[in-house]
Sequence to fold (890 residues):
Amino acid sequence: MLKPARPLSADIAGLLTARARWSALEFAFWIIAFASIFLFPDYYLILTEIVIWALFALSIDLILGYAGIISLGQAAFFGFGAYAAGLLAKHGLVTEPTLALIVSGLGAAVLGFFTSFLVLRGSDLTRLMVTLGVALVLREIANRFPEITGGADGLQGVTISPIFGQFRFDLYGHTAYVYSLIVLFVLFVIARRIVRSPFGLSLVAIKGNPLRSAAVGIAVNWRLVAIYTIAAAYAGIAGALLTQTSAFASLEGFAFDRSADGLLVLIIGGTGYLYGGLIGALIFRFAHDYLSSITPQYWQFWIGLILVVIVLVGRDRIGTWLDPVRTLADRIAAWRYSRRTRALGATSDGGGQP
Amino acid sequence: MTPVLETRALEKRFGGIVAANQVSLRLEKGARHALIGPNGAGKTTVINLLTGVLRPSSGEILLDGKNITNVEPHSRVRLGMARTFQINQLFGDLTPLETLGLAISERLGTGTHWWRTVGSRAGVVDEIGELLERFRLVDVMQERTAILPYGKQRLLEIALAFACRPRVLLLDEPAAGVPDAERQEILATIETLPADVTVLLIEHDMDIVFSFADRISVLVNGEMLVEGTVDEVSHDPRVRAVYLGEAFDG
Amino acid sequence: MLTILFDGVAYGMLLFVLACGLAVTLGLMNFVNLAHGSFAMAGGYIALVLVNRMGVPFALGLVAAFVFSAALGALFERTLYVHVYNKSHLDQVLFTIGLVFMSVAAVDYVMGSSQQFIEIPTALQGQFDVLGIGMSKYRLLIIAICGVITVALQLALMSTRFGSQLRAAVDDQRVARGLGINVGVVFAVTFAIGSGLAGLGGALGAEILGLDPIFPLKYMIYFLIVVTVGGSSSITAPFFASILLGIGDVAGKYYMPKLGAFVIYTIMIVVLIVRPQGLFAHGRAR
Fold:
C-alpha cells in the first residue's frame, strides 16, 4: 500500500489496521491454549469437550452476536454433522478424518443454506419456532430411521481411522485433543477474518439497523443467508468432531438441551467478540463439574437458575465485570499504536486517538 | 431529454387512506428540486416509494427511463439513488469511521469480501478522511454513533448518503431538529454537491428551499398541487392559501 | 375416519386451551413466554396429586389445577416476569428457558421422571358409539369443557369491560395507557388466567398427552406453532389453527405412522413460507 499523503489518512489507515490486528491478549490466549497440550495431559478428555462446546458456541455467536438471529435450533446442524461423520466412517465412505470433517461441514452448510430462507422471514418469534422446529424435525427423522442411524441407541460400530493415516486416536485422548484444538484454531482464524472484513462489518450494520443497511446498498437477506450457512458449517464440524473423538453419535446431538446450553455458553462469555464462546465453554465446564458434585442429577436446575439470574442482573452489567480486561487490552493497543506512529515519523492529528 | 427520475401516476393506499394520489414528478439531470407541503402531506411517503421501502399500489417509477418500480431498495442504491432519513437512521454501535467505511466499501463492491480488512482497498481510506473532514466529523470519528450529539448524528446521516456517491440524492428534511447555527453548515455542505447530481429536497425551512432549489413541487393531502420554478410557486395563490399564516415572501 | 376427525378436534381444542394464554401474552406484551408449558405441567401434577393420592373428585381436581396454576402465574408475573418485559427478545427467551429448566428439574426431583396418569372416574371411561363413530367419553368431555371455555373467552373478550380493555391494550399499548387503562393490571390478570387455563389443560390433557417432567419441552413447539399459525391478535384465529393442527397431527399419525409426526412441522413450514404473519391473522406482522 502506498504511503498516504495526508496525516488524517494515515491515522485512519492506522486505526483500521489496528482494528484487525491481533492484540497481545489474543496471542496470550492461544499460546496458553496450545501450551495446555503439554501442561494438562490428564485432562485431555475434558479439554476436548470444552473445545467442542467452544466451536459450537462460536457458531452461535456468528449468527447471534454478529447478525442478530436468535436460534433455538443450532443443534440441528451439530447433530447433522455428528451423524454425517459417523456414517462416513462406519460405512467407509470417507475414512480419513479431516476429509470426513470437511465433508460433514459442507453437508451441514447445505442444510443451513436451505433452511436459511425460513429464518429470514417473520419476527423473532417465528425464527425461534422455525429453528426449534428444524432441529426437532431432524431429530425425528433420525429417530424414525434406526436402520440408518441406530435410533434411540445411537450410531454403533463407528471406528475412526488415523489422521492422515499417521496419528491414531489413542485412549488418553491426546490425538483427539490436539486435533480438535487445531480445528478450533483454524476455524477461529477464519471466523476472525470474516468478522473483521467489510462483510463482517455489514453484518453488524444489519443487526443494528436493517433498514439503513438496505439504504446503503446492502442486500440484507443474502448476507444473512451467507452467515447462517457458515455458522451451520461450524456447528456441523463441531458435531463431527464429537463423533470422531468419541466414536459415537446419538440423537442427543439434535436435542433442544444442546441448543439451549450452547446459547448459555455463549451468553456467559459474551456475544459479539468471538472469544465469548471459548471463554464461556471454559466457565461452563468448570461450573458443570462443580455443580454436578453437589447435585449430580439435577444440574439442569442450576443451569436454569443461572440463566434467570443472568437476565435479571442484566447481561450488560455482567459485561462490565470484564471491563478491566478490556481497558487493559485497549491500553496495550494504544501503546503499540503510538510506538508505531512515532517510529513512522508521522504526526498525529489529535483526531481520534484511541 | 429523458428525465433522470420520473414518476407516473404514483399511488399508495393504506386500506382506505390514500397517502399518495396520482403523484407525477420529473427531475432533469442536475435538478435542484424541492418538495414542500404541510405536515402529513405525504412527502416522506413519496420518498419511501421512490426508494422502494414502500411498494406503490399503482403507477410507475423510472430511473433514467428504466422502470424500477419492482426493484429492491438495495438495488436502487446500486443504480445510483441514495437518501437520508427524516429521523436519523444510523448504526448505533458503529463509529462514524466504520459507518462511512462500510458505505464506501459497499459502493466499491468489496462489501462481500470476507478475506479483506476494512479499508485495505486503495482509496477507501482517503475517501473516508475526505468525508469526515467535509462533514466536520474528524474529532468524533472513533466514538460510538449512539453517544454522539444530535447535530453530529445529523451530519453523519447526510455524510452516509454522500458516501454512496449517488446520481440521485433524496434528502428528507436534512435540517430537521438542528439548531439555527448549524443549519447553515448543513446547507453549505449540500451546496458542495457536484452539478450533475440530481437532488430532491424535502424541507420546511423556506430559507433553505429558496436558496437551494430551482424548482418546487407542492404536495397537499397526497396530491401534487403545483409544480414550477421558485418564482411561479411562491406567487401562486393556491399555495399561499395552503400556507396561510406562514411567512412566504419570495 | 370420522373417529379420527373427532379425536383430532378434541386434541385441537385441548391444544387451544393450553396455548391461548400464550397467544394473548404475546399479543399483549410482545413477550415470548417459553415457560408457558411449565404452568400447564404444574396444573397437571396438582390434579394428579389431589385425585390419585388424596381421593379428591376429578372435577374438583380440574378446578384446583386451574386455581393453582393461575395463582402460580400471578405470583411469578408480579415477582419475576415484570422485570423482564422491557428487555430484548433474546433476554426473554433466555429467562423463560431458564424457568423451564428449573421447573423440569424441580418436578423431576419431587414427582419422579416416569410418565404418570390421572385416574379418571369410571363414568368417563369407555366410549359411545354414535352412527358408527366411536366417541371416547373422555374426549367428549374435553370437547365440551374446551368448547364452553372458548365461548366464555370470546364472550368475555367481546362483551365485558375487561375484555375491551384487553383488546385495546393488545391493539396499541401506548394509546390504551393514554386512555387510562391500567395495562399492568390487565396484563397481570390475563397472565394469571392464561396460566390457569394452561394448568387446566395440563390436567385435562394428562390422559391424552401424558404427564411427565419434560412436558414443557415436549410441547413447546406445539404451542409456538399454534400461536404462529394463528397469529396473536384474536382468540378465534388460534382456535381454528389449533383445530387444524389437532386434526392434522392425529390424522397424520394414524394414516402414516412412520411420518405422521411431520405433518405438524410441514404445516408450520408451509404457513411460514406463504404467510409469515400467521394463517388467520389480519395481515399485521408482529
